[in-house]
Write a structure and sequence with these properties.
Largest interface: A-B, 50 and 46 residues
Number of helices of chain B: 12
CATH architecture of the largest domain in chain A: 3-Layer(aba) Sandwich
Number of strands of chain B: 8
CATH class of the largest domain in chain A: Alpha Beta
CATH superfamily of the largest domain in chain A: P-loop containing nucleotide triphosphate hydrolases
CATH class of the largest domain in chain B: Alpha Beta
Number of domains of chain B: 2
CATH superfamily of the largest domain in chain B: P-loop containing nucleotide triphosphate hydrolases
Oligomer: heterodimer
Strand content of chain A: 5-15%
Largest sheet of chain A: 8 strands, mixed
Mean pLDDT of chain B: 88
Low-confidence stretches of chain A: 353-363, 430-441
Distance between the termini of chain B: 16 Å
Structural class of chain A: alpha/beta
Low-confidence stretches of chain B: none
Order of helices and strands of chain A: HHHHHEHEHEHEHEHEHEEHHHHHHHHH
Chain lengths: 441, 312
């Protein structure tokens, strides 16, 4: 996510590098590019305008002009302003002293509410919490079935009254049920509409009155365009939101909606949905996200995912290996297997600083490919795995036959491997980022 | 049934309120046409999700015509905007009707939550009204409860339905669908697929497979591939169109939920940049709320000041 914007900004800033001093003209020119990038990323045009004004004011200050490396300074100013706009610090899911903690999920139809409710529930279950899901979307055909299926998949109970049309009533009785169960959390899935209308808002207000939630979270489709501001403002005005969950962010959506919703409501973004799987929900880190926007990668997210899927010791090993001097095909294989547990490799690669998905654009690593990679590497001798440079034509032919692949595939793997080896080499040297970004992390 | 104009105006109420109002302010400002006039116009376009590239292109073409005509009063320039907007929308007009198959097979694809199932319900109704006996194939075997939702829509539309167990191979279900359509004498087959993000390589490969399998079941099928786009989407529409086209050669767009958006300008971005005709536009939540796309009507609906509805 966000690579496209990051790519643009990187391009812009690269033009600044090497210039000794910035004139107000230079700054304006650069910021015009920043604005362009933000607009293309679907950041609301008003939000973009305000942001640019704010940054321009700061950038025109003396520090930038007299600084020794004005390009770096300008990047820093943009970065800081982005972090601020995105929310300063990380926000948390509510946990009340009184149980159950009640959380209401609201949003437009198709934004991913029901899936998000299940993902949050899965997350809480992982922490050992008892969770009850309330199926309060009484309008959408089959919404109740969807929640029940998802709920049973993660072993969470679902409170539902199929056929009942009184949303507030279902919500309230679900709460009673949660109390009886001694559930830690009661997560309520509500009905969305295609658009904001009075009937939906009125119903949501009734549901809110019925369950007196500790938190109301708005689920927003991360691919939303300019409308993101209007949507989040309308929900916030009526319901007083505590936070936002941004969905569908594993794609190439540029995520301007993140900036827009945040600027429009001032409420923090709690989670980001990053995939179809039930575990594909990540905490939102403004600083990490801002870094990502600027092409600096999101190390926090990488570490976090590693901690969740690999145990801590293994994660440490992984990091040592990442930093290890020698990176052989054996490591490559072991790592592929380990990393596979953390999610699609392509997603992970995007998180690595300095790459922004760009350097590895052509390295497509799907799940099936990993199987073939395994076969290829396993068809090599130990010696070959440690010293791939000895792989001449006839060895490659043998390996292709042995693994049931083609020489082209073997070649491609070796190319990918070489690219990865260089990339880890770069990481090892302290994450060598493009010059302008140094000294910012 | 209400006239197309009435339905479009109704469906685009929100867009007309915001976009129309914005244009009104630009064109009714006092003073002569100057740089700030064009800047304001560009902002109104941006705010309607027209997207930067299309907004700039519209503005430049508009500006050139205004200069050539030597117009200096904002209100007099309005006509030129209508021209460039209509031209842009005309790019999305379908030049010819798709070749008809028998049965006529339509594959429906799109990202999660954009309104595929609902659009299929409406299309089924559309063909049902035309007396073509539509058959709906539930190839979304992934999402929990997708089948239930689809069967509710199929029933409403009076269409037949082919279903299968959750988790079964969607391509196999699609194949069965065509056999069933032949056996039952259905004229149109609508194949629903699971929503997927266009960047998910594996799922896109699955889609290509469904496409191939349909061709094996019925030569020439699918005769149409409709990509459903959510009207509240921003500039990601471009990526969706190009990546879905790579996988299955999209023949037309269904722009869903236009009634829910105040940013109907996205239709301009789609027309300007996708190079794929817009076939249908979703304008509401009932079965009838699917309009065939017509550039003139939509241009008028976008640009005409909201207050003038009554005259029509």
């Amino acid at each position: 996510m966000f690579e496209a914007l990051a790519g643009r900004l990187e391009e812009t800033f690269s033009r600044l590098r090497g210039r000794g001093k910035l004139s107000p003209e230079n700054i304006r020119e650069t910021l015009r590019e920043v604005r362009r990038a933000l607009l293309e990323a679907d950041v609301n045009y008003k939000v973009a305008r305000d942001f640019i004004r704010q940054v321009e004011g700061r950038a025109l200050g003396v520090t930038v002009l007299r600084s020794l490396s004005p390009g770096q300074q300008l990047v820093k100013v943009v970065h800081e302003a982005l972090v601020e706009l995105l929310g300063g610090e990380t926000a948390q899911l509510a946990e009340s002293a009184e149980i159950p903690t009640r959380i209401l999920f609201v949003g437009l139809q198709g934004s991913g509410k029901t899936t998000t409710v299940a993902k949050v529930a899965a997350r809480l279950k992982k922490q050992g919490k008892v969770v009850l899901l309330g199926a309060v979307d009484v309008h959408r055909p089959a919404a109740v079935d969807q929640l029940q299926t998802l709920g049973s998949g993660i072993g969470a109970q679902v409170y539902a009254e199929p056929g009942e049309r009184d949303a507030a009533g279902v919500a309230r009785r679900g709460w009673e049920q949660a109390r009886k169960l001694g559930a830690d959390y009661y997560l309520v899935d509500t009905a969305g509409r295609l658009q904001i209308d009075e009937a939906m808002m009125a119903e949501l207000a009734q549901v809110r009155a019925a369950v007196d939630p500790h938190q109301i979270l708005l689920v927003v489709d991360g691919l939303t365009g300019q409308e993101a501001v209007a949507v989040s403002e309308a929900f916030h005005e009526r319901l007083t939101l505590a936070g936002v969950v941004l969905t569908k962010m594993e794609g190439d959506g540029r995520g301007g909606a993140a900036l827009s919703t945040r600027a429009a409501t001032g409420v923090p973004i709690l989670f980001v949905g990053t995939g179809e799987g039930i575990e594909a929900l990540e905490p939102f880190h403004p600083a990490g996200m801002a870094s990502r926007i600027l092409g600096m990668g999101d190390v926090l997210a990488l570490v976090e995912r590693a901690q969740e899927t690999v145990d801590l010791e293994e994660a440490a090993q992984l990091q040592t290996r990442l930093a290890k001097e020698e990176f052989t095909l054996e490591h490559f294989l072991r790592q592929m297997r380990e990393v596979r547990k953390m999610g699609p490799l392509e997603d992970l690669i995007k998180l690595i600083p300095g790459l922004g998905g760009k350097a590895l654009k052509n390295v497509a690593v799907g799940e099936k490919d990993i199987g073939r990679v395994e076969a290829i590497v396993l068809s090599m001798t130990l010696h070959e795995r440690r010293r791939p440079e000895i792989l001449n034509g006839s060895r490659r032919k043998r390996i292709a036959r042995g693994s049931g692949t083609s020489v082209q595939e073997v070649n491609r793997l070796l190319r990918d491997f070489d690219q990865m080896r260089r990339m880890f080499g770069r990481l090892r040297k302290g994450g060598k980022l493009p010059n302008a970004f140094q000294g910012l992390s | 049934m209400a006239t197309l104009w009435k339905r479009v105006v109704d469906g685009m109420r929100k867009t007309r309120a915001v976009f129309g109002e914005g244009l009104q302010q630009v064109f009714q400002r006092s003073g002569k046409i100057d740089d700030s006039f064009y800047e304001e116009l560009e902002e109104v376009l941006l705010g309607a999700d027209v997207g930067l590239e299309t907004a700039v292109s519209l503005r430049e073409r508009f500006q050139r015509r205004v200069r050539e005509a030597g117009v200096s009063e904002p209100e007099e320039a309005r006509e030129f905007l209508r021209e460039v907007v209509t031209e842009t929308l005309a790019r999305a007009a379908a030049n010819d009707a798709p070749e008809r198959g028998s049965p006529h097979v339509i594959l429906i694809v799109g990202v999660n939550g954009v309104g595929k199932t609902t659009s299929i319900g409406k299309l089924a109704w559309h063909y049902q009204q035309a007396g073509l006996r539509p058959l709906v194939v539930a190839s979304d075997t992934y999402r929990a409860a997708a089948l239930e939702q689809l069967s509710i829509w199929a029933e409403r539309a009076g269409a037949e339905l082919i279903r299968s167990k959750p988790g079964s191979d969607p391509a196999a279900v699609a194949y069965d669908g065509i056999s069933a359509a032949r056996a039952r004498g259905c004229g149109v087959v609508l194949v629903d697929t699971a929503g997927r993000l266009q960047t998910n390589r594996n799922l896109m490969a699955e889609l290509s497979k469904i496409h191939r399998v349909l061709g094996k079941a019925e030569p020439g099928a699918p005769h149409e591939v409709l990509l459903v786009l959510d009207a509240t989407i921003g500039q990601n529409a471009l990526s969706q169109a190009s990546l879905f086209s790579e996988a299955v050669e999209v023949s037309g767009i269904v722009l869903a939920k236009l009634d829910g958006s105040a940013r109907g300008g996205v239709i301009l971005a789609i027309a300007d940049r996708l190079g794929i005709p817009v076939r249908y536009v979703g304008l509401g939540e009932t079965l009838e709320d699917l309009a065939e796309f017509d550039p003139e009507t939509f241009a008028r609906a976008l640009l005409e000041p909201p207050g003038r509805d009554a005259q029509n």
